[in-house]
Amino acid sequence: MNKHTKPTLQKLELIFKELEYSIRYEKGNFNSGYCIVEHNKVAVVNKFFDTDGRVNVLLDILLVILEDDSILSEKSKLFYGQLLKNHRSVH
Question: Domain tally for the chain?
Answer without folding.
Answer: 1
